[in-house]
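Appendix B. Chain record.
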Amino acid sequence: MFAIYKKELRSYFINPIGYVFVGVFLAVAALLCCYTTLKANTYNTSSYFSFLIMAFVILIPLLTMRLFAEERKLRTEQLLMTAPVSITSVVLGKYLAAFTVFMGALLVSCVNFIPLYVIADRERAGEAYSELNIGPVTSEIVGSLIGIILIGAAFIAIGMFISSLTEDHLAAAIGTIGIILFMVIMGFVNSMTDAEGNQIISNYALRFVIDWISVMSRFYNFGYGIFDFAALLYYLSLAGVFIFLTVRVYDKRRWG
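Structure tokens predicted for this chain:
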């Protein structure tokens, strides 16, 4: 597995896709941080992380679309299936390589939070700066980062599975975008209200199902600095299911 991991990690930076992903990720994160915190004159990072999750709709497919689709396109997947390693090791090696690139970009993007500890909220008069209590801010940021990492892990597994179904990079990207977009917007749909403040979706059973599907509904506790074990189990289970499905796809091809 480690050999597959190293090969795949190296391939991200032999090809431009790794640089494109990291560059776009850091640019999007910097712009979002600028407009949702600094320019808005606030230290509340909830909007930043919510918009970053929405950006994953485009960012994650960039990272995952080539994982297995390229192997099929170049006719090298037979080498993987006949290699002296298990299919599970191949899948995990590719998954961990993609997750490492994602984590690297996310950790570098954390420099965006430095201004939150350097300057304080500008007072209404616009003349003085007040001292920032970094305790609550740190709790929110760390909690949100944990949630972001878990969501990223789940989305990468989804993208990898879609990539295993096709040899077309574009088809893999579009399929991943569709699934991630659906899982993200469900949370916003569930919280929509009419002009009188009533929930647009009033049926409790339907709201429960949508809430279960949505990745956003489980993220909010992390944003408040609350470690949600149920959400942890949900995201890890989601990642595990799609990793398992990817293994099954290649098991079927190997013996089918």
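Further analysis of this model is presented in Appendix C.
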